[in-house]
Amino acid sequence: MNLAEYLFFYLVILLPNLFRQFNYFLSYKKTGTYIFISSYETRDFFRNRNWKLGVIEEMLLGVTFSLFWFYVPYLKFLVYGWLVDALMDSVITSYWVMKEKLLYSFISDHKQMFIFREIFVPYIIAGPVLFFINADVLMLSAVVFFVQAVFYTISKT
């Protein structure tokens, strides 16, 4: 791995996660609430009007997961999980903005929602499966970004 490869990979996995923060911010501005955010620290960022910390957090996670990808191969599933996490969060946020809370009725407890959305599906189910099948990260990132953009566009109309 050289610096150019690392930076390219970093940007590939970072962009969908930055788009998630963008979606959170604009959805927050539109609705005045952050209830659609399941992550505790991101909720705190919005509660304290420090939403920029979410962007910094994503950048730091990107550095960490990129290093794992190149130097700790058995942790590559975390990169896949992080991309799936961004996809889920963006789709759920956009859907919430369109339908106002309908999606949240199936899990009303915030702790259960956090475990389901932030741990179980992306890092216990999707990440290991995508790692096992050796999914193309560039293609996955592109698909995630495309789906995010479509849902974002639909929710804003």
Instruction: Flag low-confidence runs.
Output: none
Pairing-aware structural class of the strands and helices?
A: mainly alpha
Number of strands: 0
Strand content: under 5%
Distance between the termini: 43 Å
String of helices and strands: HHHHHH
Computed Rg: 15 Å
Task: Give the count of structural domains.
Answer: 1
Instruction: Count up the helices.
Output: 6
Question: How much helix is in the residues?
Answer: over 70%
Largest sheet: none
State the shape: globular
Q: Mean pLDDT, rounded to whole units?
A: 88
Question: If you had to describe this structure to a student in words, what would you say it looks like?
Answer:
The chain is an all-alpha fold. Helix content is 78%, strand content 0%. The chain is built from 6 helices and no strands. The protein has helices at residues 3-31, 40-47, 52-71, 77-99, 110-132, 137-156. Helix 1 (3-31) runs antiparallel to helix 3 (52-71), helix 1 packs parallel to helix 6 (137-156) and helix 4 packs parallel to helix 6. The chain is globular, with a radius of gyration of 15 Å. The mean pLDDT is 88.
